[in-house]
Amino acid sequence: MESIKPRLTEKQYYVVFAFVTSLFTLWGIAITLGDSLNKHFQNVLNVSKADSGLVQFSIFGAYAIMGIPAGLFMKKYGYKNGVLLGLCLYAAGAFLFVPAANAESFNFFRIALFVLACGLATLETVAHPFAASLGDQRTSDQRVNFAQSFNGLGGVIGPLIGAYVIFGDTLNTTDLTSVKILYVVIGAVVASVALVFSFVKVPALTDPHVIATDTYAIEGDLHVEKKLFQNKHFVFAAIAQFFNVAAQGGTWAYFINYGHEVLKMTDAEAAKWFAVSMVMMMVGRFIGTFLMRYIAAYKLLAIFAFCNIVMCIIVAQAFGWVSFCALLFINFFFSIMFPTIFSLGLKDLGGKTQQASSFIVMGVAGGAVFPYLMGKIADKNIAEAYYLPIICYAVIFSFAFFYTKLNPRIKL
Predict the structure, then answer these.
(1) What is the pLDDT of residues 142-182, one digit of tens each?
(2) Sign of the four-CA dihedral 345, 348, 354, 359
(3) Closest among 332, 318, 343, 295 to 131, alpha carbons compared
(4) N or C: which end of the chain has fewer CB within 10 A?
(5) What residue ranges do the domains of the chain occupy?
């Protein structure tokens, strides 16, 4: 008898799934605003491109430190309390921007960003397995990609806020006043979201990874217990995620610089184009989610990784608008990578799913290292800095291309 095709999620999860999806929007706003802060700190605090890359070090470095504690907290206190902890840390970090702006201290800003990012790391650790558990594991790839599509929405909002508030004439842009006011508002919004979610009732959840309902699994192999690091697909997923976020952090950190130096745009104009690139990422996720109904997730990941290798080569040539369009398309092809790597890494891990989620989130620390390295090259030639992400996309391509060998329980 032919099995019924599983839905994206079930009716009893609609409210919770909508709320979890909104967390991805908040994450997108915070991450892309960090890229606007890069250029603003270069302008106002007179830091170099390489040193401004330490903004990403503060943000993504928090993931390396907070990943495991967040996973342990989630395991002991559940998804809902994990979300509340993440939102509270997010709001606290945003409010710390006030004394940082008053002190006009780059290092104080990095501390504030670190606290804020500890909240983001907690939300990342919780939200992905949370979204994956809200339905059948056979649709977990689609569910996580759908939720991540709204991360793209946040990614659009963040650069627009940067363009109009930080770089525009909405507030005073000659000092740190605009940054201070902006993050007070963000902190208040996030704290309000936390308050509302504290009253949301979360239905009892049975993690589909634990009950092993994945149709890819080979009969008779489901109950073979392995230690977490014996699962090659999980280990390679954590490595791929490190390089994935490394590429993302570097590409986004110097997007505005690229527009300013290669196409002679103003910072505000480049920030608006950064928002356009985020629209392309959001569109890419919706298209990717649709295509996964017909193309296996690991195959689509390999195709998109290869396309980004080509895009990076074009960007590095500084061919004017041709290269700038390729820079925009990097985000389109980047779109499915984070959630797909995450979901593929969690498959068939049973009760070790939450622990694995913590380690994959720690892979986000790649974004702490790469922007500084790209910045060293960007200080001399902004275009040539985009050769570096090719290494990252080659690793992601390898993970996707060899996925069936890494996880033999997956059917071709």
Answers:
(1) 777 777 778 778 878 888 888 788 776 555 455 688 888 88
(2) negative
(3) 343
(4) N
(5) 11-201+215-406
Fold (topology level) of 11-201+215-406: Growth Hormone; Chain: A; (1.20.1250)
Q: Which two tokens stand for residue 391?
A: 């290494």
CA atoms within 13 A of residue 309's CA, in its CB half-sphere: 15
Query: Cβ contacts of residue 189 below 8 Å, gap of 6+?
Result: none
The pair of three-digit structure tokens given for residue 85, joined into one six-digit string: 């902890």
CB 168 within 8 A of CB 268: yes
The length of the chain in residues reads: 412
In the numeric block, the tokens 């073979």 are attached to 224
At position 73, the amino acid (one-letter code) is: F
Are 204 and 395 in contact by the 8 Å Cβ rule? The answer is: no
Write 215-218 long-range contacts (CB < 8 A, 24+): 215/3, 215/138, 216/347, 216/348, 216/409, 216/410, 216/411, 217/348, 217/409, 218/408, 218/409, 218/411
* Element spanning 97, H or E: helix 97-103
CA–CA dist 360, 150 (Å, integer): 20
The two structure tokens encoding residue 54: 């330490």
Question: DSSP secondary-structure letter at 45?
Answer: S
Task: Extract the residue ranges of the chain whose pLDDT is less than 70.
Answer: 1-6, 8-10, 135-141, 168-175, 203-226, 354, 410-412
Cα separations in angstroms, 82 against 122, 183, 196, 375: 7, 23, 15, 34
Distance between CA atoms of residues 226 and 212, nearest Å: 14
